[in-house]
Amino acid sequence: MSKLVLIMDVSLDGLVARPGQSGAGGWGVPPEDPALKARKLDWLREAGLHLMGRVTYEEMAGFWPGSDDEYAAPMNAIPKVVFSRTLTKADWPQSTIASGDLADEISALKHQPGQDLIAWGGAAFAQSLSRLRLVDEYRLVGSARGAGGRAPAVRRARRALRTGPRRGPGLCRRLGGSCLPPGGRGEQFRLIRAAPLTD
Length: 199
What we know:
Elements: E1 4-10, H1 34-45, E2 47-53, H2 54-61, H3 72-77, E3 80-83, E4 95-98, H4 102-110, E5 116-120, H5 123-131, E6 137-143, H6 155-161, H7 168-175, E7 177-180, E8 189-194
Parallel strand pairs: 1-5, 1-6, 2-3, 2-5, 3-4
Antiparallel strand pairs: 6-8, 7-8
């Protein structure tokens, strides 16, 4: 059975990066460390499907087809499933709309042969996946600064993320996962691989 992996960029206070802010791609995060980008590219190469909600899908569909970034090739080539009850067409090549019950749709995808399913938040989509216990592994890329917004990526993770970048091992224990070393730019990023969160 395939594994569902949720990948999100989050701030120190557990908020998702917001479009229109400073940083690479305008996503509200500083430019990526090269070692971090290489690891994320490896994750993409392990993926068999991209999963996302409507808002994230529309943002990515408007950006990746015309991008020359290293991420563009796997983002465009790997099949995508967008979960929406309102979307009537998906023009990004290799895209399929899933409009049924989220848990049932994910279960069916997990039972298909293939590689990992990579889910991209959207805070609302990430919260829905977490609430329904559909995520098998969390890969949260944390910026060492607060965003000060109102959209926590995964509500149960927000308190743990407040542990701070200099207390990464404790943070990882609270999330039930293991830490990867921070990027080469001091404490700017810390990667967390976590088992599904529980109450």
